[in-house]
Structures
1.
Amino acid sequence: MEKLVSRSLMLILIGMATAQNIQAGERMSMPTSFKKQTTGLSHVSQQTISVKGNVRDQSGEPMAGVNVIVEGTTIGTMTDSNGNFTLNVPSTSIKIKFSYIGYEDQIVLIKNNRNLNITLNENSEMLDEVQIIGYGTQKKITVTGAVSSVGTKDILKSPVPNVAQALTGKVPGLSTIQYSGQPGADDPAIFVRGIGSLDAKRAAPLVMVDGVERSFFRLDPNEIENITVLKDASATAVFGVRGANGVILVTTKRGEEGKAQISVSTSASLQKPIRLYEYANSYDYAVAFNEKLTNDGASPVFGEKILDAFKNHTDPLLYPDMDWMELILKPTSFQSQHNLSISGGTDRVRYFTSVGILTQNGLFRSFDAGYNSNFTYNRYNYRANLDIDVTRSTLLKINLGGRLEDTKEPNTKSNLFTFLTRVTPFGGAGLYDGKWIHTSPDNIGWDKGALENADPFECFFGKGYNQRIYNEINLDLSLQQKLDFLTKGLSLNIKGSYNSGYTHRKNRYKEIPYYTAHRDPETNELFFRKFREESQLYFEESTDRGRNWYLEGSLNYDRKFGKHQVGALILYNQWRDQYPDPAQFDYVSIPRGYVGLVGRATYNFDNRYMVDFNVGYNGSENFAPGHRYGIFPAFSAGWILSEEKFMKNQSFINYLKIRGSYGIVGNDLMNTKSRFFYLPDAYNPYGTSYNFGVDVSGNRDGATELQMGNPLVSWEKAGKQNYGLDFSILDEHLSGSFDYFIEKRHDILTTRNTAPNFIAITMPVVNIGKVDNKGFELVLKWNHSIGDFKYWINGNLSYAKNKIVYKDEIPHKYPWLYETGQSVGQPFGFIFDGFVTEADLESGKLPDHKLDLKPGDAKYKDLNGDNIIDDNDQCPIGNPIYPQLTAGITAGFEYKGFDFSMLWAGSGKVSRFISAGLRVPFGGGNYGLLQYMIDDHWTPETAETAKTPRFSGAANANNYTRNSTLWLKDASYIRLKNVQIGYTFKGEWMKKIHLKNMRIYASGENLLTFDHLKIADPEATDDKQFQYPLQMIFNIGLNLNF
């Protein structure tokens, strides 16, 4: 009945408009379809024929406003209110296309038939394609916010153990920075539209899996249907206090009615470090160390005998020359992924089940220490999603998912790669005849303490391992009840979720003896001295747990009145974390939680004009009563211009929509573990100890003040604007979007830096910071088919630049010393002004560097002109440490069963300091030396080509440890993130074994990297350059569908 009324109203309107247009001598132009086709009347020759006809829908109702066009021309017209049309065409051997929004196009060949009766079938896929949004879905063509998605097909192309790594370069506005490739600990940092606050720690987006806050890093990618990124205030306002940094929505797969569909996937991979540091051999090290001593006026420590032994390897046990990287690390490690999923159902019950296994081995070799201390990571994922139609109006959804993780790591995992940069190539000889050989200082005259810390086996061999077994279970129950008996389009949704995690840790350790090798001075016979006895096995275990729950209740309304579509949402939610993570929060014995209300109202007229209003009302435990709740509203609107009459008479644009939004979202977290910002002064009851009276032999426990409270502190707020354009042209071969955004964040939660030190207490949290952030996102997609050959090229480019508008800073003498006005993460340092020359010294014009400068030392610019190089000469240098520019390009083709795709991803306008451990020769003492330092350092012979200063321990503070443009590098990079080639088999033989589809493929990840940094990986900041190296992956796989 509603459809009949709607169609009748449309016919009346079109009839009135048609009558007016006929009187004016014009043809009527109406919205055609989402796939826009051009209409219009061109001048025709007199050799034309007249074609008449009528167009109806599947129910026999006449269709007004149907686009009737001669294919390949601009000759066209529209049906009237009765579905009739008349069209003059050049000849009888032409094709006429009929199109209307929400219906499948129909093409008819005109021969002798000049009276046509056409029936158009609905195309629900075109009109009803939905987009996941916060707490619901929306028709994609009516979305007015800044939203981007990536589907399961694109996610599964990357053979990575961590789902988040598969997003790099695929989602505009989303940047990922991966610092580590360690098995089970390779989570990347994720930012949506850059950094909007004062630091990166408070810039992480909210992640929701099936509508509940959960991590998605460890999900099996085969479980995932879609990952959606919400970027502007219109899209994130419903999350209120947690929406300031963007939101990532992960939707898992569900079953569909039909026979059981069985999918099996298996893959095997070899992993290889993208980049490892290259260290000097023993001879080059010794020569360089002697050079350093000579430069500092000291005597060389390595004599000719030792140098000859290092160079010629005459006695490798006493004078080792070890490549520790080669000895301790394997060239490759193994990884495998396997998954079995089954889906299907009846008209009443639908199901999706999945079981996945991931195994990942580490790079470290195994030695005979009685156990394997290598990195290993095994993960077992499971999921069962059920949809049960209890009645025709009642839907029950049950989601059960979880995982079991088994992780083994060396006890010294955090120090392994740091230690590898500190060791000398002659610090030990590895394992000889089952003995762990240290180098004796008696042999080479080296510092005993330095030698004891110069063997990487000291950090790895015999130090034991720890095992972490983690079990997590997630349960969601959702009941959706249609309330059409009250009013059509109304529904009730009740949801509850329970998440539980349990950790069991085991630690094993024992001391292993080591030996030093010696030769008898008279007989030259080799003998060993033993140090330390083998200890008993040390064992320790502990447990930890986590538990949280989530409740949600909502009323939804969605109804169409003719051309008017209206929707509304009212939602209440509550979340409670029973055992806060002590690594992230204080007061772990006190549960933390959120409570909030959500509202949404939407209006859509004829799929042309869209208006959305969203609001979140949230409460946070961090603020005092009276400041605890905040309202976060957002408004957005959209206009599909391609459905307007004035856009009809052209053939270039198929689809064009403009949209805009403005809203306010919030944040209630800081970059520390602090909670309850409003409480009176917090104390640590065991913070210190005191002596009382005359007995000073024992102390008494005493309390210390931790932080002052602030009862007036409230939300951090972000005002966000977004202006977007979506388009499709050239018969939809080229499509894309452009977004420009502005964010102004104020009342940022921080502490004052201008309080005097004698206060001796951490200052309270206040709302004083301000940061502006603006940028753009561009997406272009080209898709085309030539016969059986289908190809595509897609690209996205994102730019986000922030600026600190206000930060509480101590007064500085000079304007270049302030962080205010700079980007978040902006490096500061000295401006390198070349190497000191003899002419510089003779001129007497060098500023005072607080050092007796010599040729080959670094010199810096004196910015304030006081002829002294000190902290007042530091200024902003280079680009921020967080990339302002990110991009991704995908290309591929499909042809008769073959398929190929590749993804290039990169970042730009980003800088990295070389870590002090990678730029200070000998580690500032008796530690390791990288080969590039030897190749690039200054000597009188290399003065014209040198890239680093001379070797000098006395000049380390000036030459190497000072942050300057000498050590700040452009960290822009382009990486072949993924490449894949596959073949899908077809044939009658497959039916005999009930096989629907079989595909074999080979793929790779991180295969090529082009960058300027060279020394370290361009993604690693200076404090992350000793992490487990990032991996390139070589993978083969098989997919079967039954």
2.
Amino acid sequence: MKDRDYNLITPWRIVHSPGIVLEVVTGSDTQSRPASEVVDVVNIKTEDAELIGQDNHLYSQPCTEISVDTSSMTCNTVTPTIGRMDANGQALVKYSKGLSNRSRPSLSGNPATDACLQTIVSEQRSQAADIKQSLDRGFDQLVQQHKQSHEELLAKLEQMEQLLEQKRQEMFELQRNLEDKQELILQLQESTKNELLNKQEEIHSLQQCAKDELLRKQEEMLDMQRQTLNRLAVILSHVKALLTQTYELHEYPIPRLFIVLPKTMEFRDRFTNTDQYRLYFLCECGTHTMHEGSKVPHEVHLAKHEGYDLQKPKEFFEKYGTYVNAMLCMIKYGIIAGGVVVPPLANLKIPDLMELAGKHMDDLRRNIIPLVNDTISLLQELGRDNESTGRLYTQNRGLNKLEALEGVDLRQLESYLKVKDQGRILGNLYRIVTPEGHVKWVCFDHYRANYRESTMKELQDAVESHGGTFIEETGRIEIKIATSVLARYFYEALVKARRTHELQIKLTWDATMDDIRALCDAITKANVIRLTLDGTHFKGPTIDIVNRGRRFDPIWKLASNARLQSLQLIGFDDFFSRVTKYTLPAPKLRLFSMEWKTPLDDKAIKLLNGFLEHCSGLTALELKVHQQYLTTKDLMDAFPKIQKLEYIKVDYGRFSLVTKFPQDKIQETMVLDRIDGLTYRDSTFIQQHFRKDMRIEYTQKDEDRLMSILRQNSGLVYIQIRRQGEHNHVITPTTDAPLQDLMNLVTSEIPSTLESFSIHCQRLTLKAGFSEGKTQDMTVIIERLVRLNSDDLRFIQENSITKLTIRNTPHEAHETRLTEILTQCPSLRHLQIGCEWRRSLIIIILVLFTRARIIVQGGSFGLRTVELMDEGPTPFDVLASRDDNTHIQCHLSFPEDSDSFDMRTWIRLGMEMLSDGAGPVRDIILQYGWSVVFFDGYLEDGIILTAFNKMSNTKTSQLESLMIHSADSLENGIDTLSNIIHQSPNFRDLGLHVNYRGLEQGLSLLGQHGTILSRLRLYGFATDTFSIVASYLPTRNSLPALESFELRPYNGTTLPLNVTSWIVAMVSAPPQRPAPSASQHIPKDTMVDEQGTYSASGSARSWTPLRKVMLRGVQLSRDEWRRVIESLGVLALEHLDLSESNIAHHQFEMLVDRITNNAPNLMFKTLDIRQSNLAKTLDSGALDAILAELREKAPLVKIMLDL
């Protein structure tokens, strides 16, 4: 029993028997009090009672405390206790003795007391009846609960029986299915047997087909041989045409005949190094260099020069590949054409160059035939590649374009060469001019045979006496002469030598007509081809008044001497007022240039047109005028007579006008170097004159004037405007100018001729091509979506944008803009987004959801690729670089004929991911983990591992590379990692941080997947852990496919001895065994690897030789370095990293000594020795000597060394 506070209480109890009457005892002084006071107060208080029923159960019942107060007695404390119940169920009350020592009279005779007792008894009887009823109800409830529990138990038993019956039926069904499967297996075995028989028949049929195919291939090979011979005939015919083609001096600035050969025999990686190809010029000797009594052979041969290294081989071959191929075929087979004899390759003369590197020339002489053959094969392969990709050579688009190697092409050739002998002529060749006026480049022997040394020495002295310069190799003279007497001696030496091709002369006195005639006569007799004459001092002497009006006529006549090809006149302000009408033809003149400062009147313009009309061979006209706006319209009278004219350039000082004539069309280009220097008249002229092409450079303050000029020139074909300090763009004058208005400005009124344009402003860049009145390949580059205004969005949606680049992350508030662009731009093909890694998944889902919605709605979705990169103009290279930041890069592609998509993802986790949370990365892996190609990161919290374990497996995993940094991921996620690798058929690259924690699991991972690894990276701080790895993987047998081995200990201590032995085993070349003789029997289970190694089953397996070895930070003793270097497989090695190691001078020399000179299969490309002991302790001279020897042995190698 508990009270209201749930505390246990112990009731007072009286054990009683039925029939016992409760005795009430009162005090002895009751008789002295009035009867009315005998029972003054009756208090009945319930305490505790125990009632025992017929079933002998005890029940608690409260008792009543009775206090009787009369005048004659005192009842201090009477505590009755209810004992057992009588036969009538009434409780018998017994009072405890608590009265005074006075007498205790009986109360039975007192009426008041009797009434009180009767009341008590009646109440007790009523309470007992209530208790009995309560007990009966409780018992009924217990019975009812028991019955209900019994029924529930029966129901559960029934359910269990039903479930058991169901399982029994399923068991029977499984047995039946098993029997069916067994029958199916028997059927499959039978069908497999039949299929094998069919396959055997098919194999027999295929063998017959293969035989027929072989016969067909043989026929095709014969056809290809015939085609090759036909192509060779075509090549030789074009070479013949090339050799017989003549060139003039201004078209022939450098030698034109040359070949290109590799410095080594290896072609595996053709364009990774700039020093592996060398260009050799040829001497153009022939009948034009022969003279009576000459004993010098006059056959084409290599020039006396060691050749020039190519700086950009790939670009060079794209531009000159066809030409080089023709030249190589020419020297391979030989040819005779146009008085030129080219002997076959076997008889080709390679000069002896004692002053040059003898070893190089010896190698060239010894290997000339295979080098030529290999180079021809290379160029033919490049030609096939270009045809397959739709690409053509930039300039030489086939054999029909061989003749295009002139002028600009030859001048650009020098930019591809590493010229060490600055100031000298290429190839030590000399330029000569044949009697027919054709230019040839010959060696010194053939040059000297045609020109006497004494006359050349006399000319050299004459030039030097006037402070001039004479470049004998090119025949160029620059000189100033002060008097006519001194000029006479110079003219005599000039005519005797007859070796001057270019003459730039300035007469610093006011020459008369006779002086000018003497100069022109000497120029004609000396066969000068290019003349620049400065007439600044020709003001007109008073003694020559008679000849004033025809003073410059000898210069007119000089143009018709049938030798002069270029004439440039400087400082002749009144030239046209001192000449008569020109009437002589000048067919050989190719270039005419003139400068004057006084405006030309109508008479002068008419004389200029008359002169130009007689220059039928003129190709270039350059005029520099002042204070006058001379245009091509002023020269239109002469155009019909100048059929070969290519361009006219009129220089106005502050700007220039270039007019070209491609295919009988006129194309004008306005070139403005500075806008701030333009006068009002200049601006008016530019605005009113029709221009189709304009190039402008301006500053920001000139934007208003620039815009005014552009608006007045609606006929522009191509606009190239350059703000000073920026790249070439069309730049808007105001940042809020509508994009459509700028488009209209560029394309207004010339939709059929505009070819390309670009618009650049602060918020975006637009680039596009233009063809047949329509824009093509329009690209928009946006810095941030928030910067776009409504006009920009409308322009993007309404125009055919094919590529869109957003360099910064589209935030949540601007996702609607991106969705609108994707939805309303069906022409969009490529999308690039610079995206912060936390929003990568959101952007991916947005693109995929938008695409799915458009397809479901029957719309057109033209997007083919989506690239998610890092923010900014130069995205982070996630494969080559590493920092402490997280990077996620994705590439999505959408095929045209399918609703599916492909995706590739590169993930590199940084340290901030641990604190910021891996939620976004986890979500990407959960949904698109199959797309992860590269993963490198910390997996401390296990979130990423869990995501990989639960990732969607709807597609095959594309994982190729995995770098694990944390020990927790190895200890707790080894099964997940192993499962990921098992599900990735392209997995080849594994990187581990070797620590004590997780080491066992890491070794287990290596043991499971070592046979498929081509790259292994091991990093760590504790050297003892590397010892454990060395014991676990002592040889390469567990890593047979490994091509890259990278070891990086961080603590800088010397590695244990067993680790050194392990390194030796890892870097060793496969064991070489001699090939069996013809008489020896080779077992069937013997395999031959790439290196020619024979290994039988059960013996030590061979392995792939390493292409990359990284021992960064490795500290070894001298003897240990010796062991490593001696075991290193140098023939297959391409990359060696010894940075931060303690390799010393002698060990490095040993490494260089192991490399064989001119090894045919040597692939050595990079050597990294930065921050190594070798770079720190070796003096520069000794180091340079070793490196020079290494470069000689391995021409392809690139050495990374601290400066």
3.
Amino acid sequence: MGRSLVKCLLWGLIVLVHLHGHRGCFDEERMGLLEIKEEFVRSTPSKTIRDPLLPSWVDDHKSECCEWERVTCNSTTGHVTHLSLHNIWDWEFHTEMDPLGFFEYMVWFLNVSLFESFKELRSLDLSFNAIGGWIEHKGSQILLRLNKLERLNLDFNLFNRSIIPSLRLLTSLKALNLSYNEVKGSFPAKDLEMLDLRYNSLTGSLTVQDFKSLSKLRKLEHLDLGENGFNEGIIRSLGALSALKSLKLDSNFMKGPLYDQDLPALDRLEVLDMSMNDFTGIVPPLIGALSSLKSLFLGRNKLNGSLPAEGLCKLQKLEELDLSWNSFEGTLPSCLYNLTSLQLLDLSGNQFRGNISSLIAGLTFLKHVDLSHNIFEGFSFDSFANHSKLEFFQFICQDKKAEIETENSDWVPLFQLEFLVISNCSLNKLSNQIPKFLFHQHSLRVLDLSQNMLKGPFPNWLFGNNTRLEYSTLKDNSFSGNFHLPQCLNFTYWMDVSNNQLNGQLQGNIGNVLPKTWYLKLSNNNLNGPLPSSIGNMSILRGFDVSFNNFFGEVPKELLAGCLELIELALSNNNFDGHLLSSDFNSTMLEVLRISDNWFTGIISNELSSKHLSLLDASNNNMSGKIPIWICNRTSLDEADGILLQNNYFTGQIPCEKIEFKFLDLSHNFLWGSLPSWSSSSLQYLHLEENRFSGSIPKAFLNISELLILDISGNRLSGSIPSVISNAFNLRILLLRGNRLSGTIPTQLCQLIEISLIDLSRNFLSGTIPHCFQHFVANNTQSFGFVYYSNRLYVSIVNGVLANGNTGHLTVEVNFVTKYRLSSYKGSILDYMSGLDLSCNNLTGEIPIELGKLQGIHALNLSHNQLTGSIPKTLSNLTELESLDLSHNSLSGKIPQELIELTFLAVFSVAYNNLSGRTPDRKAQFGTFDASSYKGNSFLCGLPLEKNCTTTKDSPPMPTQSSDVSDEKWHKVDQAVFFTSFSVTCIIFFLGVVSVLYINPRWQLWCYNLIEDCIYSCYFSIAITLRKLFVRLYN
């Protein structure tokens, strides 16, 4: 009886102790925590101080340390058991950043002896702290005292292999996370259950022999070796890990066929990730032997063929199957219908075909489905009639042929989607209406219905039903009506409704409706009216694009004053006016400013304070004044993308002493003076045409090795073409038309092996055409990216969606004379256009036969020179030629009959030469040319000329009668009336022209250029006529 009473008392005491626990932390551990805080404060990298650091950790005995942040104690003993010091300085990392690259500038070393007080510590998290290792001689042996530590997280630091010996002292360690470090060497402990070595410096040099230590890890259940450099030889050595449940080998250098014998027999394996390698061949049938497998990830390899039914279909427990971005083809095996536990199915990026609707209908546990980028016949949403768990559906079609039907008037879905992407498909082909089942969706966070040819009123209700919508894009459809969002959308940070048919004005409170939006794109619609001033309330707006609409008025000052985080602002192709750039911007983060094709006036302020500005496009406005020097010389623009100020009224000289842009366009202004002697390591596109520059071409211009386009046509440049032009060896387009250049054509032009367009017309060049033009590469098919994209805006990822804030592109445009007209060539067409124009010069000698080797050329113009000799037969080799003009020269001999082989020729002229004989046969394209192509050649005969080739003697010209008829019956009154009315008419016309030119300066420029062109044309005509006369007299 007594013993029973004692036992009861003891058990009661134990229960009370457990219920009451230990109150108050131990002083030793309290002091240890404060020392750890002091260590972190002392080691805080510069510019990362966040005061106060660990504010709850205070040296106050009244403060219970077990209640401090990041600290967990055992409720019974009061000892610290869990210590989380993850990202102690709260660094922020965007998804495109490399944390390890950032950490290299923040690295520090930790005194591990600080943890000797925590003898009951079970879990320690030191991740994301840029720790480079332990401080030497500071007690790494202290780790022996942490004999109860089971979980250690060191990921995202800079530990190297020197840490391995100290980790072996942690005898109780079961879970070790060393991912994203720089660790090398063998594995540190034998009793581990979880080992994470992701993203280290482990490479294929660690072969099977190096992994003999794996056999000691009998208890290992989770192994992550992803994002290293292992080869496929490691796979077989993993067979000794009999307890393994999760194996991740993704993002390594494994390649070749994945044979059956390579797969270890791991009966307990539940997760296998071998994605993002270079495996080829088929999925091995033996994979079906992994009977416990729940997750299989083989995405982003080079696997091909059809799916083996005998392999995958045996995985009855499979819950996740990722086969994305391989080269699988054919139809899916019907036995996949039996994988009823499947929750994730990703088949995107393959060549699967057939109808998948019936298969999906049977997999009712699906949560995540991605069928994008295949050639399925289509898909019906009726397949999801019994799916209550579906959260994610993505179907991005390769073309608009895949039909997706969602319409069923009686269907109310059982699921609530969070993620819906249907893009570039034929969605609801018969009605082109937005899916009606969306009326029943209220949990959407990501929505993409772009490029589906949807029409009807804009679905404003969609945003009212889904108030937690974060990312939405309805771009490239035909939605119409007003864009009036129903209420405050506090979670929407990305919205793109560009390329629709929206009209009307923006709601006045749009800035209050979208207070937390980062990116708003409304471009390419029919919106009008002024911009609401409430946009200034969108304080975290980073990208705003309303280009290609009908907005008018001044840009509200609130936008510039309130949107302090603005990175990209696109207002181009509207009817805005005012002095936008004449005042300072508060948007100091601004990187891209596009305001082209508006009616902005005034000057560009010297106080435009955005030091990050990388792209400024203010072209096609009415701006004036001088170009401010900050545009060129600020060091913050060293990585700038471009400055475009063409078609304005800027005057003065170019202030730039150094150019580090990729794109500079100052064309069609009133700039004058000499061209600067620039040097640049990045300039690719230079447009200075149609200004008033004079002097010679600076040699420094032609030493820019990255230069692709040089257009300085339509100026008053003189002197010769510098021979150093060969240094611009990447040059694709050279336009020097309409200057006053003289001298010979330098043979160094032939060394430009990438050149495709040369225009030297309307100058005073003399001498012969270089024979080396045979090396002119006119059939260059390599694209040099004439469509230049600006991609400065941030990139974010929402549930796997890559959100790229690229609001536009710079389309390169050049003018080139072909087919008798000055044509404009833009964008990617320049990759296919090629031509040579040497017209309107003083070139002499014969046409080189080597020009016949320019087989990809589309336009050749040698007219209005003094060329002699015959037309080379080799020109018939120019099979792509569309325009050939040899007129107004002194060519003689016959026209080669072989030219009729030029089947693409649309323009042909040999007029005003000394050619003789029969015209080419009226075949192919030559059957379309009339007599004007041959006129001015007295000795040519045959169709389409009236002169018959059988005539042996020229018929004398018929005398023409001329009579001077004088009418003496005019009366003096009639004469006075006629001359008076004629004089008044002339005066009125003259005053009208002067008035128009005074009002519109742009027409003034046109008039001046027209007069200048007429003077040059008259000069060339007289000079060439006199030259021909002297040649004939002396010959």
